[in-house]
């Protein structure tokens, strides 16, 4: 970590700690969905470049921010995986995944958010999801929160290939990455 990044981090943390309600600007939102099969791993990614002002502080009356993720625009590495991803999430019937950050607030030395994920017309609530601040030398700083989704809870049947020899495991890891301007 360079001196510049250290100073930036200290100023960000101290300014947020001194004021009850602070905000910052997001320049990119990324969602990574990682899973595994009986023969390996896969990762599907969607990135959205857009500027969003985020308020820090508990405010149950107002959603902090939200975004739509077009299921067909996730990149899973190859066309066959992309097709399986869309089929599994019923992308023709439910073309978008919706992510709404209902609250975003300081928690200890980090941040946390209350998240509502709408997937296949079902809401999945994640309370107090921790977001870690990552300072990357020579790159954009970002906040990242990770949670797990069980496909069985959402009544999603994982795809099977080669007469059931290749199966997707029921648990997916979802990472929300929020890149900060600065």
UniProtKB/TrEMBL annotation:
Originating species: Roseivirga pacifica
Protein name: YceI-like domain-containing protein
């Amino acid at each position: 970590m360079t001196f510049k990044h250290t100073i930036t981090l200290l100023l960000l943390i101290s300014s947020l700690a001194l004021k009850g309600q602070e905000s910052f600007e997001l320049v990119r939102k990324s969602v990574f969905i990682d899973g595994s099969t009986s023969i390996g791993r896969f990762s599907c990614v969607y990135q959205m470049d857009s500027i969003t002002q985020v308020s820090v502080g508990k405010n149950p009356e107002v959603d902090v921010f939200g975004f739509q993720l077009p299921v067909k625009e996730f990149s899973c590495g190859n066309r066959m995986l992309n097709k399986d991803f869309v089929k599994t999430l019923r992308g023709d019937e439910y073309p978008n995944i919706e992510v709404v950050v209902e609250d975003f607030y300081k928690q200890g030395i980090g941040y946390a958010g209350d998240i509502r994920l709408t997937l296949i017309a079902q809401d999945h609530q994640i309370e107090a999801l921790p977001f870690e601040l990552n300072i990357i030398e020579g790159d954009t700083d970002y906040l990242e929160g990770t949670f797990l989704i069980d496909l069985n809870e959402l009544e999603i049947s994982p795809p099977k290939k080669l007469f059931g020899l290749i199966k997707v495991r029921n648990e997916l890891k979802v990472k929300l990455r929020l890149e900060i301007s600065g």
